[in-house]
Amino acid sequence: MSGDDAQLKERPRVGLALSGGVARGFAHLGVLRVLEEHHIPIDYIAGTSAGSLVAAAYAAGMSVEEVERVSRSMRWRDVGRVTISRLGVQSNARLEEFVRGRLPVSRFEELRIPLAVVATDLKTGSAVIMTEGDVPFAVRASCALPGWYVPVTDDHGRQLVDGGLVANIPTAAVRGLGADLVIAVDVNSEGAKFIGPPHSVIGVILQSMMVIQRTAAIHQLHDADVVVMPKTGHIRWDEMQRADELIATGELAARPTVERIKRLLEPVAEPRPKWYQRRRRGQQPLEDKRRVSPLR
User: Fold this and answer.
1) What angle (nearest 5°) sits at the alpha carbon of residue 227, between those of residues 96 and 23?
2) Burial level of 70, CB count in 10 A (0-12/13-18/19+)?
3) Contact (CB, 8 A) for 27 and 64
4) Separation of alpha carbons 230 and 51, rounded Å
């Protein structure tokens, strides 16, 4: 096919879907580092739970290095504190304060990259996809682990909890923003490889959520064009102090996918319409021929 008979489509718009995974969410930073290294653009980004924290920071304009520095200093005391409530052991209001104090902007409308944050409506069981308003609040809601953190109430009176219950890998959310090519990062693909049962209440809750999420994740990953699966099974979900190891797993998993992503990003030559090709050859378009043909 000659250049005259084809036209180049512009590259697909890239969306990044970052899964929940508590401390394992630090692996997302290794993936982002590799994508940046290879100049792979991110046009849209969505995050659930821990993935929403990384997604919000990156969408707000923070560099990967800046987010890594914050991650290394983050501890559980920055996320929640004990509260008196029948709905949870702790409040995660501290997480909202933590995020607000570090993001360069706090409104969805001010972000450098369009962002979607996923939470769960506790009453209806449906996904709540937040794309406008206050970003730190959205991240807090997406990370409100049910049974441990008190549900977060929004302006509509909805009780919101961790988005991992309904969309731990937010591929549909990032498609909804406008992405053509979706890169999904699943930091829980290996489950748990460490020996022994959970050692705490939060460990039991996290392990139970993991069991629920695995079936749903299969369907969510089907909506991705490229899937990155960091090998984090040997690291528990509560081990924030192992941020460097988790970042390294993200890098290691992302590198083999780079060439495939680049191929998918190449402009594609699509054929010109047949009427255009005939006109280039000096022929009359088919519809015109039909118009002048004698009646039979």
Assistant:
1) 35
2) buried
3) no
4) 13
pTM of the model: 0.83
Spatial separation of the C-alpha atoms in residues 126 and 167, rounded to whole Å: 9
* Angle between helices 135-142 and 93-100 in degrees, nearest 10: 140
| Active-site position among 19, 43, 49, 52 | 49
Tell me the HSE value of 106 on the side-chain side, using a 13 A CA sphere. Answer: 11
Active site residue 244: no
Which residues make Cβ contacts (< 8 Å) with residue 232, sequence separation at least 6?
21, 24, 27, 187, 188, 190, 246, 249
70 three-state secondary structure: helix
The whole-angstrom distance between residue 278's C-alpha and the CA centroid of its chain comes to: 45
Q: Which of these is catalytic: 43, 121, 162, 186?
A: 162
pLDDT per residue as tens digits for the range 179-215: 999 999 999 888 766 546 666 776 677 667 666 666 6
Q: What is the pLDDT of residue 276?
A: 43
| Contact between residue 52 and residue 209 where contact means Cβ atoms under 8 Å apart | no
pLDDT by residue (tens digit) across 38-97?
Answer: 999 999 999 999 999 999 999 999 999 999 999 888 988 889 888 888 888 899 999 999
Q: Is the pLDDT of residue 110 over 90?
A: yes
39 CB-near residues (< 8 Å, 6+ apart): none
- Cα angle 43-129-110, degrees, rounded to a multiple of 5: 50
* Cα angle value 249/254/256 (rounded, 5°): 115
| Helix, strand, coil shares, percent, the chain, to 5 | 45, 15, 40
Q: Would residue 85 show up in a list of annotated catalytic residues for this protein?
A: no
